[in-house]
Amino acid sequence: MKASRIVVMVIVLIGLVGVFAFTAGEPEESVVVYSAGPGGLARNIAQGFEEKTGINVDLYQATTGDVLGRLEAEADRPHADVVVLASWPAAFALYQNGWLAQYEPENADKLNEGWNYDNYFFGYSASALGVVYNTNEVDDPGEDWGDFTDGRFRDVVAMPDPAQSGSCLDFVTGYVLNYGDEAWELFETLAANGLEVAGPNRPALDSVVTAANFVVLAGVDYMTYGAMAEGSPVDMFYPESGTVVNPRPAMMTSWSNNPEGAQAFLDYMLSDEAQQFVADEYIIPGRADVAAHPDRVGYADIPVLDLDWDWMAENQGEVLTRFQQIIR
């Protein structure tokens, strides 16, 4: 009888050990990635990584705002190993919170200049903002932001809402940084000319595709190039006074349950294969040695504002408040 009980206890203990071993091993078998679009690119990178490494990717794909909100909500019990955002200043805020771990991924030495923040986060890709217009409705779109204060563009110009679009907020803040009072005068004149704030980036672009608006300012370029490739009646240009090229930052969290897997994922993001995925989506590759899609303007040919990302991160809240007061 005693012997039977001993056997049963041994079997139970073996089972428990197996359960605990499986539980302890789970973090090493998957990487939790929170990614702020675009969805197709995020899925391609996740799938490519899984095929290359055999490590499963638990992908949550949303907007930058939604990703940040989820990180805040989970602050007491965090899950993400890797975070990918669409706004450089947003990554800086996570760094200030102490939520990021340093890691230098493979091929980091090939990144575009300034696209690595002390190995806490790096720009694996980038989008630029420009003027998007409906070619059926606009013959002469002009050359600069201020051209759309003209009466012929009254009530037909939109802009993404900087409260919902991190890239648009970066543009507004970067333009204020460069032009000060002149920038605020531009926004006030645009508002007086009927500027519509049209939600996140995609709805703003869609309003021009359908001609609900004729022009969208601070439109995201890769979305526009994609729409053009699909035959939509749109085109775009980068204003001569300058725009924002926003590196899309990737980073490893300081609480990662699988730091080795997270590091491998960041390595893969700068691999030849993943950078080609980036180029295929009309997005600017993070690596300077990887060519952009042949049907888009290259990074070197875009007139870029002189940006101080630290200043922009610290002042975006104040800039957004003033912008909203003007538009309303």
Task: Characterize the structure shown.
44% of the residues lie in helices and 19% in strands. The protein is an alpha/beta fold. It has 2 domains: 30-126 and 246-297, Periplasmic binding protein-like II (D-Maltodextrin-Binding Protein, domain 2); 128-244 and 304-327, Periplasmic binding protein-like II (D-Maltodextrin-Binding Protein, domain 2). Strands 1, 2, 3, 4, 5, 6, 7, 8, 9, 10, 11 and 12 form a 12-stranded mixed beta sheet that branches. A hairpin with a 3-residue loop joins strand 5 (116-117) and strand 6 (121-134). Helix 2 (39-53) crosses helix 9 (259-269), helix 2 (39-53) runs antiparallel to helix 10 and helix 4 packs across helix 11 (309-327). The longest helix has 28 residues, at 2-29. Mean pLDDT is 91; it is low at 1-27.
List key phrases describing it.
328 residues, alpha/beta, D-Maltodextrin-Binding Protein, domain 2, disordered N terminus
Please indicate the percent range of residues in DSSP E strands (runs of 2 or more).
Answer: 15-25%
Secondary structure category:
alpha/beta
Order of helix and strand elements from N to C terminus: HEHEHEHEEEEHHEHEHEEHHEH
Whole-Å distance between the termini? 82 Å
**Low-confidence spans:** 1-27
Radius of gyration: 23 Å
The number of distinct helices, counting runs of at least 4 residues, comes to: 11
Number of domains: 2
Average pLDDT, rounded to a whole number, is: 91
The CATH homologous superfamily of the largest domain is termed: Periplasmic binding protein-like II
